[in-house]
Design the sequence.
């Protein structure tokens, strides 16, 4: 039996969504009929044109709202400016790699703010809107690194583990309401940023493209295939169906078996 996702009349706010995973999720939800609010820290003509293109393609309402997710007041203002938030996708994130003793304090602070604290601030404003509407979905984009660890990524891993814990708390606080909260934990996803890294990695290791992908980039991903933004969008869309009404407070791994190891 096919699971049909019809999100007509719902509004989804997706942080960090003018490219990559966030944009893929936005496009999937728009295809399902949801109105879309895109977000990033930039405010360019291309950002607003992107929203206009999604609206025209899918016959829904879409707009772009600038907001720096490293600043709590701007996180809250994003939801307030949206005016309605039935589906909250906390996706914004950054990364930095360094040993703990060399990890710049400002990088730690920025990663914790964007990857973790932003989700607290957006949820704090969105949850009353969901309660008023009588329905809601909070979906946090965590990572395989929200369930496992790697060296030299202390801030990212701390933030992603924190997102998993925050998700469980939101789920418990809304458990008797028609609101769910879940975290999606992707492994490596083929985004434009990752795609741009491949040629440099080929040069660094003197390997061809296929070998770099299998042996370097996907070394910890048993499937040896990237997850796609469309697959993540599909997972988000499923969590918005009635079939997922009793799925709350958990993590869903889209990682090609990474966390099965």
Sequence:
């Amino acid at each position: 039996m096919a699971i049909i996702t019809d999100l007509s009349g719902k509004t989804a706010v997706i942080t960090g969504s003018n490219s990559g995973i966030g944009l893929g999720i936005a496009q999937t939800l728009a295809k399902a009929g949801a109105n879309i609010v895109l977000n990033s820290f930039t405010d360019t003509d291309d950002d607003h044109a992107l929203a206009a293109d999604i609206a025209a393609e899918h016959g829904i309402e879409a707009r772009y709202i600038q907001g720096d997710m490293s600043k709590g007041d701007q996180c809250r203002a994003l939801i307030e400016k949206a005016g309605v938030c039935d589906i909250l996708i906390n996706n914004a994130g950054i990364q930095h790699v360094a040993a703990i003793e060399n990890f710049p304090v400002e990088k730690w602070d920025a990663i914790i703010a964007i990857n973790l604290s932003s989700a607290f601030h957006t949820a704090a404003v969105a949850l009353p809107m969901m309660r008023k509407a009588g329905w809601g979905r909070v979906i946090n984009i965590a990572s395989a690194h929200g369930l496992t660890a790697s060296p030299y990524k202390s801030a990212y891993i701390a933030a992603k583990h924190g997102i998993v814990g925050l998700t469980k708390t939101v789920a418990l606080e809304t458990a008797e309401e028609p609101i769910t909260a879940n975290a999606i934990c992707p492994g490596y996803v083929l985004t434009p940023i990752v795609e741009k890294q491949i040629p440099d990695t080929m040069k660094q290791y003197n390997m061809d493209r296929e070998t770099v992908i299998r042996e370097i980039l996907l070394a910890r991903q048993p499937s040896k295939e990237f997850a796609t933004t469309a697959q993540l969008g599909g997972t988000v869309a499923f969590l918005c169906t009635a079939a997922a009404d009793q799925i709350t407070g958990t993590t869903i791994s889209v990682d090609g078996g990474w966390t099965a190891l």
